[in-house]
Amino acid sequence: MKILIVDDFSTMRRIIKNLLRELGFNNTVEADDGLTALPILQAGGIDFLVTDWNMPGMQGIDLLKAVRADAKLSSIPVLMVTAETKREQIMVAAQAGVNGYVVKPFTAGTLKDKIDKIFERIDAK
Amino acid sequence: MESSTKTAQLKAARALISALEADNEELIQQQLTLLTQTQESELFHEVGKLTRDLHESLNSFNVDSRLVDLTENTMPNTRERLNYVITTTEDAAHKTLGFIDQTLPLASSLKETAEKIDESWHRFRMREMNATEFRELSREIEAYLPLVKQHSDQIHINLTDMMMAQGFQDLTGQVIRQVITLLEEVEDNLVRLVKVSGKHLEHKKEDKIVDPIKAEGPQINAKNNPNVVNNQDEVDDLLSSLGF
Q1: What mean pLDDT comes out for the span A59-69?
Q2: What's the Cα-to-Cα distance from A63 to each of A49, A66, A96, A106, B68, rounded to whole Å?
Q3: Does the beta carbon of B97 lie under 8 angstroms from any beta carbon of chain A?
Q4: How far is B101 from B168, CA to CA, in rounded Å?
Q5: B164:A94 CB<8 A
Q6: Cβ of B216 and A94 within 8 Å?
Q7: Does B230 reach chain A within 8 Å, measured CB to CB?
Q8: What are B38-52's pLDDT values in tens digits?
Q9: Tens digits of per-residue pLDDT, B165-180?
Q10: pTM of the full structure
Q11: Which of B73, B102, B137, B142 counts the highest number of beta carbons within 10 A?
């Protein structure tokens, strides 16, 4: 399981990376916005995407839309971890096909919970 | 100068010369008045134009909506944002220090008991220990091992929480970036304000296109805003209402 972590703040990428390691996901790669994330995704081998929303360059919501619009990437589960908390934003993310939405600041438990739920749903299919 | 005015002035000047030559006092006065009158109306015209320009300049000051918006809304909002940075960093520092306070005694107690057991164990190996002392040592080891697990677990939890507290850097970083953008805008507006002393303040009234999902970073005043969620539970509720 290879996970791509996209956030413009290196501290947040490190936090998410450490939490994922705790959960047993040791294989992670990082990108600092949608523009740098897309080539990594297109190169193949990414099984799960964790992305922030508010980033310079290409924002997380646009990355999500780009992933869903790309036939080769469209089935990758996407978890959004963001400080964006407007109801409209969450609805737009849901419509764009996000698999989970975690608001910052979050706890280790919340992240685990949401990742578990995403895999449960995938396994159930 | 307009040609009609010029013709009128020439006519008046010629009449003035002939009046002077004829030494006709009354006609001289009449033609002089006629000449200065056109001059005066030019002056009034210029003063009127200047007054209008000034009026428009002052008006464009008043209605530059961005300047008004900056002073009335954005500045207080920025103060709130910077206060958010203070409270968030303060909160993160206290959390981290709190976890350190909780963790240090756990590590110390493990070390102290380990040292005590190590000493007794050494005596046992050197056959310097009687049966009663050995039974005591066994009890100590029995009590110690589960404690090691328990304390290690707690230390692990505390360290994870300490790590989570570092998320403040991302949240406050987003807010500080917004403040920097604002400062650049204020600078830009001040430069325009300085330029206006020479010419009119360019009045650009841009139509604000409201993007409902524009990324805004952490919400500073979420509690008073019905359009934003306050915590993960509300996110989950909203998503489940959407069939998630």
Answers
A1: 97
A2: 10, 5, 10, 22, 36
A3: no
A4: 20
A5: no
A6: no
A7: yes
A8: 677 778 888 888 888
A9: 999 999 999 999 999 9
A10: 0.68
A11: B137
